[in-house]
Write a structure and sequence with these properties.
The structure holds two protein chains of two kinds.
Chain A lengths: L1 H33 L2 H5 L8 H15 L1 H5 L2 E2 L8 E2 L7 H15 L6 H27 L2 H13 L1 H4 L9 H22 L2 H17 L3 H17 L5 H18 L8 H4 L4 H22 L2 H29 L7 H7 L3 H5 L1 H4 L9 H8 L2 H14 L3 H19 L4 H23 L1 H10 L4 H14 L8 H11 L5 H29 L7 E4 L6 E4 L1 H12 L5 E3 L5 H8 L2 E2 L8 H12 L2 H10 L4 E5 L10 H15 L24 H4 L2 H7 L15 E2 L4 E2 L10 E6 L5 E6 L50
Parallel strand pairs in A: 5-6, 5-7
Antiparallel strand pairs in A: 1-2, 3-4, 7-11, 8-9, 10-11
Helix pairs in contact in A: 1-6, 1-7, 3-5, 3-28, 5-6, 6-7, 6-9, 6-22, 7-22, 9-10, 9-12, 10-12, 11-14, 11-21, 12-14, 20-22, 21-22, 27-28, 29-30, 29-31
Chain B lengths: L1 H24 L1 E11 L5 E11 L5 E8 L4 E8 L4 E7 L8 E11 L1 E10 L3 E3 L3 E2 L6 E7 L8 E9 L5 E4 L5 E4 L2 E10 L6 E7 L5 E13 L3 E12 L3 E2 L5 H6 L11 E6 L3 E7 L2 E2 L3 E5 L3 E6 L10 E11 L4 E4 L2 E7 L9 E10 L5 E6 L5 E2 L3 E3 L8 E12 L5 E7 L7 H22 L12
Parallel strand pairs in B: 1-11, 9-18, 16-27
Antiparallel strand pairs in B: 1-2, 2-7, 3-6, 4-5, 4-7, 5-6, 8-10, 10-15, 11-14, 12-15, 13-14, 16-17, 17-24, 19-23, 20-21, 20-24, 22-23, 25-26, 26-32, 27-31, 28-32, 29-31, 30-31
The chains are: A mainly alpha, B mainly beta.
């Protein structure tokens, strides 16, 4: 009997590990391939804006080596300030792809660094699904883990940040996040230093990869704190948290960009406070076991009060002294959604920092958003140390996702996990039939089966939820209540829903998240053929080939990274918006008149100005539509020169046609966008100068540029580049009266009294007379 | 030491003898017909020379002098359309004048020779900077008469231009102009080495494109494929664009930017497949490919129209099946391919570097080129599954034109067994991984006894 069950066990173990392996492999492949839409439709190319910087930095690191990269001062960005790149990036992404590149080249596989960068995020999505599996397995059951792994492989909320070509920190950070949580949960469960040191290492990777590490360093202390409040203190918790905190703190300070922040900013103070609290609790526990009850009470009251006062005073004093920095603006905007709009227009101007709409929850998560509360309920019902963690994770992530569209990304993994729990729980109930059949076929009595299942659970191979014993009883009481018809209907319905989920994911990925945004494609309505608008690369390549190597290009900050990455030219401002006043200066130049902005441009040594203009093809993301943000940011720094209200009509409208505000119709951005556009007739019937994006005939058609000249305009007028003329190039610049004097020289006149007048010898005498008639 | 001196003396004697014999022989050019094709950026000249030996001796050698700078190509044929050997005579003195010695295989007292030369960078834009809507005008300065060692009885020159818009030309009678052709001559009894100038100033809107560098990489695989990759840097070497560029004018006015290069054609071998056209920013989506009977016609459009002085850079690559170019007998292999290939019509390449990558383990490499090239040091390249590296044969040549498109031959030996090396490497690697997994899973590395269950 015993032997046969052992054989059976190993057989089941073999099958279940095969299934686990197969499901995870398929999840990896599916996740990888569903991220390739953009590569197949277009090509292997880096997308959008930030990835271009990451790519450029990675290429620099691969070319010049790690230490050169750390010390890299980029003089091609933020002219004339420059940027210390090594100290202002999270280098995890570059190190990851750089080391992959290094490994492959050791093996003589000549893969271009660009292809590694393009495919890094899809490859890491597979690792994410594996770490999600591991985490869910720790929290609930391997079956739920497989569900969660499959969900996260294809869920749009995560795909949106990890399609091929979207080479950004989030691509690897979600893996690091999930893996850190897995190791943390493991370490809380086991109380082993090994796992918590592993969690600290994984946290170190996360810190090196993404600013979102702050989420971990606040969530884990929160978990510990809540466990303490719930009275779930244990030596395991003490071991794991103290190891994790100390190591994690030391590790995180090794990243140059983070530096001393973990001990000096408010965002990190919670972790330290919880550490102190945990220590205090541990000491008290110890004293409790040593001292008598009365002594302990006294000590508790006095010591507790003293400690509380001490900590409070220390924090206040440190904050006042400026040792501990107060919360940064971006974090304020997490609590008060209106904060950024009032105080930091540059944060508010980014669309991904807007609050999330209800619609996008469904769009990004589909059915998971419905199943997620069910999983949460299961976890709350059968709570234990690690399930407290996932509950906290879920609640905080939901809040942050509601505040900022961008943080949808941190919500997605927990939604997948809890939805996995929910589906697994549902199928556990309705797939019981098979289990009972199998029980029958093994011809063994019930207690033995239970025993066997228990041992399976210990091995954690069996695809069942956690509290098996309890549930088996629960099922046996209800088994007669669920007819097989109902079972099959429910199973079919669940499968149907899951199938629709897969279809929805593919559809969203294909339609919403797979556009490289530097190559635009549109379908011709007449013959259905696909046309490609490659104007961005056309312009950037023109810049790279036909301008001086040190040419400085002024554009709005959105295009800074792309210009640096594709054209390899110096930019004034870019997407690393660290210097608001510099951006405001560019905004001021764009919103002043040509004459005034020429002064700004010459003071900044600008050689070329680049604007994006969508009026010919109806591209809505162009500079005129972003113009109000430029004005607002400029107004923030130069309120005397630029006023937002000047750019609106009397009725408060922003319009570019003849009724538009004169300040708008004469500013540099307007002129550069519409230079010679007034002559252009897009239609034979329509008027000339008709802007398709704003559906209006432009108001200021006939003007010429004095200080700039058109250097290049792309085929569809999407990108327009102007050259700033040198002072001697335009017609006779006006000199002020006092400057008109000829400077004195060493010339001494030889005219004396005698030779006062010069004369010409044999001077012909001109006789005034009448005009001769022909 | 003495031996060398002796040889030097012999050499001097021989040289003086040669000079004397040439002077004494009294060859005269009975009739010279010259066709100057100036319709593109290249100067293509065809000389039909009837040379006669006045004393009736058979002519063995004929010295032909080229005065044009940047001579890129020269070839000669005799009356029977047979190739005549052309040899450059090393000369100290004047740097612009080069003499070529033609050696006939069948000497006779009357030889008719057809000489073709192509020279580059002799048609210069004049003015050198134009506005976007202006026409591109060019100026050519050459020799009105055949610059020859021998005196010439009668000679005619036909000049073919690109358009009938001729601003000025040399007016030595007799001459006539019809449409885009100018006829000079016949001029009679012109002495040797006369230096009268021929100047033509006319409109030439044909593309003035210079390939600054071409790096052609040919990678041979014995699994049936040859990959060709060309890295090309192009400059519009015509009249530079002055002032601003206007997209509006360029789109609306047909006369605007006529000298700009919007697209050009590249011809690839008929069997070319997997063609890609890209630059550092990725695929250049503006190109068309037409499959013709005996070639592939590729219509390449740079990302932006090339105006005077504008540059661009791109990579063009394709694969061809190796059975068309690679011949073998036993362990001996022979690769026969174009040294350079067509890039655009009337092309002009400043410098071409050709790299040929042979399979790992190729030995006894021997290169035969149709014209002299500068060999670089052989190199090694490591790519997929390489252990000892693939030999790279590299050579370069400057100032090339279309006439240089001809085959090189590369002989090497390669044992067929080494073909199996790479698959075996993969198989071995996978085998080791499996073996390692099997062993690892059966190892118990823990220090506690019961941890097996956990």
């Amino acid at each position: 009997m015993n032997r046969s069950s052992k054989i059976f066990n190993s057989k089941v173990a073999g099958y279940s590990s095969l299934i686990t392996f197969a499901v995870l492999l398929i999840a990896w492949i599916a996740g990888f391939s569903s991220r390739l839409f953009a590569v197949i439709r277009f090509e292997s190319i880096i997308h959008e804006f930030d990835p271009w910087f990451n790519y450029r930095a990675t290429a620099y690191m691969v070319e010049h080596g790690w230490y050169k990269f750390l010390n890299w001062f980029d003089e091609r960005a933020w002219y004339p300030l420059g940027r210390i790149v090594g100290g202002t990036v999270y280098p995890g992404l570059m190190i990851t792809s750089g080391s992959i590149h290094y490994l492959l080249h050791i093996l003589n596989i000549p893969v271009h660094i660009r292809d590694i960068c393009v495919f890094l995020a899809p490859v890491f999505s597979g690792l994410t699904s594996i770490s999600t599996y591991l985490l869910t397995k720790e929290l609930w059951s391997p079956g739920a883990g497989l569900f969660a792994a499959s969900f996260i492989a294809i869920v749009p909320g995560y795909i949106s940040r990890s399609v091929a070509g979207s080479y950004d920190n989030e691509g690897i950070a979600i893996f690091a996040l999930q893996f850190t949580y897995f190791l943390w949960v493991r370490s809380v469960k086991t109380g082993s230093v090994f796992w918590s040191a592993g969690a600290a290492l994984s946290y170190f990777y996360m810190v090196s990869a993404w600013g979102g590490y702050v989420f971990i360093i606040n969530l884990i202390p929160l978990h510990v704190f809540v466990l303490l409040i719930m009275g779930r203190y244990s030596p395991r918790l003490l071991t794991s948290y103290s190891t994790f905190f100390i190591l994690g703190l030391l590790f995180s300070m090794q990243i140059p960009f983070v530096g001393f922040q973990p001990i000096r900013t408010s965002e990190h103070m919670a972790a330290m406070g919880v550490f102190v609290l945990l220590m205090a609790v541990a000491v008290l526990r110890h004293l409790q076991s040593v001292l008598s009850r009365n002594e302990f009470r006294k000590l508790f009251i006095v010591g507790g009060l003293l400690a509380a006062i001490l900590v409070f005073v220390a924090v206040v004093v440190l904050t006042v002294l400026g040792v501990v920095a107060p919360w940064s603006g971006r974090f304020y905007s997490l609590w008060d959604t209106g904060y950024a709009k009032i105080h930091i227009p540059i944060i508010a101007s980014v669309s991904e920092h807007q609050p999330t709409t209800w619609f996008s929850f469904f769009f990004d998560l589909h059915i998971l958003v419905c199943a997620f509360p069910v999983g949460l309920w299961y976890c709350i019902k059968q709570v234990n140390d690690e399930r407290v963690f996932v509950v906290l994770y879920a609640i905080s992530a939901v809040y942050f996702a509601g505040v900022m569209v961008r943080l949808m990304l941190t919500l997605t993994p927990v939604v997948c996990m809890l939805a996995g729990v929910a589906f697994s729980g549902l199928l556990d109930v309705f797939l019981q039939e098979d289990a009972s059949k199998r029980v029958a076929s093994t011809t063994s009595s019930l207690p033995e089966t239970e025993d066997q299942e228990e041992s399976l659970e210990k091995k954690s191979f069996y695809d069942k939820a956690g509290k098996l014993k309890h549930r088996t009883k629960h099922d046996t009481t209800h088994e007669s209540g669920i007819s097989s018809n109902l079972k099959s209907i429910v199973i079919l319905a669940v499968l149907m829903i899951l199938m629709m989920f897969a279809v929805h994911c593919t559809w969203v990925t294909s339609n919403a998240y797979s556009s490289p945004s530097i190559v635009l494609a549109f379908h011709n309505s007449q013959d259905g053929s696909r046309n490609i608008l490659d104007d961005f690369r056309e312009a950037y390549y023109w810049l790279s080939q036909n301008t001086a190597d040190d040419a400085r290009i002024m554009s709005w900050w959105d295009y800074g990274y792309q210009i640096a990455g594709m054209a390899n030219r110096t930019t004034l401002v870019d997407n690393n918006t660290w210097n608001n006043s510099h951006i405001a200066l560019v905004g001021k130049a764009m919103s002043s008149t040509e004459e005034k902005s020429y002064e700004i441009m010459t003071s900044l040594d600008v050689d070329y100005v680049l604007v994006i203009f969508g009026g010919v093809i109806g591209y809505s993301g162009d500079d005129i539509n972003k113009f109000l943000w430029m004005v607002r940011i400029a107004e923030g720094e130069h309120p005397k020169d630029i006023k937002e209200s000047d750019f609106f009509t009397d009725r408060g409208e922003f319009r570019v046609d003849a009724e538009g505000a004169p300040a708008l119709l004469n500013c540099l951005m307007y002129k550069l966008s519409y230079y010679r556009f007034g002559d252009l007739k897009l239609d034979y019937r329509g008027p000339s100068g008709y802007d398709r994006t704003r559906n209006a005939v432009i108001g200021n058609k006939d003007f010429d540029l004095t200080y700039l000249e058109e250097a290049y305009t792309t085929e569809h007028w999407l990108v327009r580049i102007y050259r700033v003329k040198k002072p001697f190039e335009f017609n006779r610049p006006s000199l002020k009266a006092k400057d008109r004097l000829i400077p004195p020289t060493n010339f001494v006149s030889r005219k004396n009294l005698k030779r006062r007048k010069g004369f010409i010898r044999n001077r012909p005498t001109v006789i005034k007379g009448k005009r001769t008639l022909k | 030491m003495k031996k060398m001196e002796l040889s030097r003396i012999i050499y001097c004697v021989a040289l003086t003898y040669l000079c004397f014999s040439a002077a004494n022989a009294e060859i005269i050019n009975k009739n010279v017909e010259r066709v100057l094709d100036l319709s593109s950026q290249l100067v293509k000249t065809t000389y039909k020379i009837t040379a006669e030996e006045t004393t009736g001796k058979p002519i063995k050698e004929y010295v032909f002098i080229v005065t044009e700078p940047n001579l890129s190509y020269i070839s000669a044929k005799d009356g029977l359309n047979k190739k005549v050997e052309v040899q450059k005579i090393q000369e100290g003195g004047a740097s612009n004048v080069f003499s070529y010695k033609l050696t006939f295989s069948s000497p006779s007292s009357k030889q008719s020779i057809v000489i073709e030369t192509v020279s580059t960078k002799n048609i210069l834009p004049h003015p050198s900077e134009i506005k976007q809507n202006d026409k591109q005008l060019v100026k050519f300065v050459g020799k009105l008469y055949l610059y020859s060692k021998y005196s010439t009885s009668t000679q005619k020159t036909n000049v073919i231009l690109s358009s009938s818009n001729i601003l000025s030309h040399t007016q030595v009678k007799p001459f006539s102009v019809s449409s885009n052709k100018v006829f000079f001559g016949p001029y009679e009894n012109i002495g040797a080495q006369s230096e009268d100038e021929l100047v033509l100033h006319y409109e030439n809107q044909t593309p003035f494109l210079t390939v600054n560098t071409l790096e052609r990489t040919i990678e041979v695989s014995h699994w049936g494929n040859i990959a060709v990759k060309e890295d090309i840097q192009l400059t519009h070497s015509g009249a530079k664009l002055k002032g601003s560029f206007s997209r509006y004018d360029f789109q609306k006015d047909g006369r605007s930017g006529q000298s700009a290069v919007k697209s050009y054609k590249t011809y690839l071998p008929a069997s070319a497949n997997g063609v890609y056209y890209r630059d550092t920013n990725g695929n250049i989506s503006t190109s068309n490919m037409n499959l013709m009977r005996d070639f592939v016609d590729l219509d390449l459009r740079p990302r932006f129209p090339l105006f005077g002085g504008w540059k661009t850079q791109y990579t063009l690559g394709y694969n061809v099946p190796s059975y068309e170019y690679l011949y073998s007998s036993g362990n001996k292999y022979m690769l026969k391919m174009h040294l350079i290939d067509h890039i655009h019509d009337n092309m002009l390449i400043d410098e071409a570097v050709v790299n040929i990558i042979l399979p790992e383990g190729s030995t006894n490499i021997e290169l035969i080129t149709p014209y002299s090239v500068k060999r670089h040091q052989n190199d090694l390249m490591y790519t997929y599954l390489d252990t000892v590296g693939r030999p790279v044969i590299s050579f370069s040549k400057q100032n090339l034109v279309e006439n240089h498109i001809s085959d090189f031959t590369l002989k090497y030996s390669f044992s067929k067994v080494s073909l199996l090396q790479e698959p075996l490497l993969v198989i071995g690697f996978i085998y080791i991984i499996f073996l390692f997994t099997i062993v690892f899973l059966r190892l118990d590395l823990s220090i506690t006894s019961h941890s097996h269950k956990d």
